Amino acid sequence: MQSNDARILRGAAIPSACAGLIGVIVGAAVAGAEGALGAGLGTVVVLAFFGAGLLALSRIGRRWPELLLGAGFLVYTTQILVMLLLLALLRDATFMDGRVFGFTVLGALLVWLAAQAWTSTRVKTLYVEPAEPQKAGRTEPRA
């Protein structure tokens, strides 16, 4: 992982984790232990899904930069679809409060997207690889 990708990951994960912590506190106050569990699980799901997506895009960008835009659309669409599927599966779960889970996922997801966009605009990403400096006294061979 390149240093700029790591900065973007940290810049998105830390605010999302803070939003999730707020969700856990509010969930515990509103729905007790089930609410805190739902908010905690929602935070972990957002951090895992979107962190894995950012790591995948980092690897794809390093190996196949010409595929980055299409891969970004595919990864983001897959994340949203899997998130919707997970929300549908856990909607009637009895071990946690589903409403707190859903609101925490939504809140942490929105914070992730905003923080990732903001951090991406602040990170200086090279789009041209700098050439290696030539050694002094070295000449090009003539044909």
What is the element layout, followed by pairings?
Layout: H1 3-63, H2 68-89, H3 98-122
Helix pairs in contact: 1-2, 1-3
Keywords, separated by commas or semicolons:
143 residues; mainly alpha; 0% strand; elongated
Structure write-up:
The protein contains 3 helices and no strands. It starts with a helix and ends in a 21-residue tail after the last helix. It is mainly alpha-helical and 143 residues long. It has one domain. The longest helix has 61 residues, at 3-63. The protein is elongated.
- Give the % helix: over 70%
Oligomer: single chain
Low-confidence stretches: none
Strand % is under 5%
Helix/strand-derived class? mainly alpha
Q: Please count the helical segments.
A: 3
If you average the pLDDT, what whole number results? 86
Write down the secondary-structure element order.
Answer: HHH
Evaluate the radius of gyration: 21 Å
Describe the sheet with the most strands.
Answer: none
Globally, the shape reads elongated
The number of distinct β-strands equals 0
Termini gap: 41 Å
**Domains, number:** 1
